[in-house]
User: Which sequence fits this backbone?
């Protein structure tokens, strides 16, 4: 969806940001009419309070927004986005004491708060536009918002309209827009080209599995992004119960997130060589579905015992990671809606990530905190390696016992990255369970903005 800031030269109304500790002084300093109005409404500056100030002609003269305190603001993010849907149409600017980072978060949150998924239903979109605050890189924020909207749209689209072929179309459309090179391997050709596990997971569906491969950029360090593209996950022969299958349209959230991140990188023209790999499949039930106790041979040569066909994401990622590893990029990142264990550990708001490189891990943590894309580091805990080693194959795709599920999944993936020292894996949720400022209920990107922020330092751009 299109995003825009208000024309910086156009007239605009002020949105006053008023902290609770300053509310009484602010109200006392207004005109008699505004003071009476705000007193009657009980304006205290509590976080999220918003009241329009009427002008002499009856039209809005501005608005006040309760800015709470530093402590209350820390309990959430994109707090100013609370105001967007309640403001009258027209152009607005912020009046308040904001640091450069606060101003950037406010501007981005405002853009993201205007996102609506309208493919199947006409939805009222907020019509209040913000002037980008002074010092904010408006073009960069627009590119980020557009990438995030792409991610949200892809996740929100039901699987009937977002299967492997449709994900390929979105992938190809993005690549063509920015002059990237696209290669796609489909169906049985996956076997001929050495991707047996992608083929095994997707072969039971009448929607052919495929590997999507995008390359862009001619100079600079190599960055490879791998995203899990399971467009719908029934669980396979270990079929999910209905309650667990309800949100499986979002099981391609890793693919959607790396595609949105690729948009940001290419739109901003970062000086790097980008590769994006998406194994796009549907994990279906059928007579030719892969079975529990099957042993699959991977692109890497490692054999994998299948102890649960519902642990399929790590299988398709493994073949794609093996391909990425052959090129030895300067940084390799995988993103996937991989385990329920990650949600149990940190909930839907935090994106766990794994990285052996302490410098990269610290850069990601700092970036996430700086730009309101929260992350939490989990360990590649080597004592658990034996948990993913069954008796008759090299690896087990679903260790028994239910312990440390996110860690054992990450350790499984790391087995396929042997020649690339700098590797990070994100176990994201990709879904906003209830509406929050800047994040309507539905599909959402996680980790992409933090990674984008960290890239200059990590890759020396």
Assistant:
């Amino acid at each position: 969806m299109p995003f825009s800031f208000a024309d910086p030269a156009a007239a605009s109304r002020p949105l006053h940001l008023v902290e609770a500790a300053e509310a009484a002084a602010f109200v006392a300093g207004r005109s008699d009419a505004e003071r009476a109005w705000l007193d009657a409404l009980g304006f205290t500056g509590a976080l999220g309070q918003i009241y329009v100030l009427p002008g002499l002609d009856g039209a809005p003269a501005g608005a006040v927004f309760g800015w709470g305190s530093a402590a209350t603001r820390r309990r959430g993010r994109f707090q100013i986005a609370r105001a967007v849907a309640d403001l009258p149409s027209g152009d607005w600017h912020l009046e308040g004491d904001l640091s450069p980072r606060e101003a950037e978060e406010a501007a981005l949150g405002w853009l993201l708060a205007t996102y609506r998924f309208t493919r199947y239903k006409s939805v009222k979109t907020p019509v209040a536009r913000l002037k980008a605050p002074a010092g904010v890189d408006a073009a960069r924020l627009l590119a980020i918002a557009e990438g995030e909207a792409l991610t949200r749209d892809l996740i929100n689209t039901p699987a009937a309209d977002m299967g492997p072929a449709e994900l390929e179309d979105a992938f190809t459309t993005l690549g063509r827009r920015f002059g990237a090179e696209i290669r796609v391997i489909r169906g049985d050709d996956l076997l001929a080209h050495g991707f047996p596990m992608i083929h095994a997971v997707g072969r039971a569906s009448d929607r052919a599995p495929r590997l999507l491969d995008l390359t862009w950029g001619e100079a600079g360090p190599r960055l490879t992004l791998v995203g899990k593209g399971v467009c719908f996950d029934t669980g396979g022969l270990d079929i999910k119960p209905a309650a667990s299958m309800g949100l499986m349209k979002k099981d391609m959230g890793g693919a959607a997130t790396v595609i949105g991140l690729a948009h940001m990188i290419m739109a901003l023209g970062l000086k790097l060589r980008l590769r994006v790999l998406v194994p796009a499949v549907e994990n279906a039930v059928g007579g030719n579905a892969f079975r529990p106790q099957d042993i699959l041979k991977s692109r890497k040569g490692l054999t994998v015992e299948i102890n649960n066909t519902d642990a399929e994401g790590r299988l398709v990622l493994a073949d794609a990671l093996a391909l990425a590893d052959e090129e030895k990029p300067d940084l390799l990142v995988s993103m996937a809606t991989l385990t329920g264990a990650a949600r149990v550990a940190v909930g839907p708001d935090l994106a766990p990530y794994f990285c052996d490189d302490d410098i990269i891990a610290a850069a990601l943590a700092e970036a996430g905190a700086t730009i309101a894309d929260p992350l939490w580091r989990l360990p590649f805990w080597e004592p658990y390696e034996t948990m993913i080693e069954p008796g008759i194959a090299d690896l087990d795709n679903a260790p028994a016992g239910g312990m440390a599920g996110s860690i054992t999944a990450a350790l499984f993936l790391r087995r396929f990255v042997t020649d690339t020292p700098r590797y990070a894996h994100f176990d994201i949720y990709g879904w906003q369970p209830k509406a929050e400022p800047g994040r309507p209920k539905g599909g959402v990107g996680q980790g992409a903005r933090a990674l984008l922020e960290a890239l200059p330092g990590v890759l020396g751009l």
Q: What stands out?
A: Residues 299 and 401 are 28 Å apart (CA to CA). Residues 13-136 form a domain with the Leucine Aminopeptidase, subunit E; domain 1 fold (CATH 3.40.220.10).
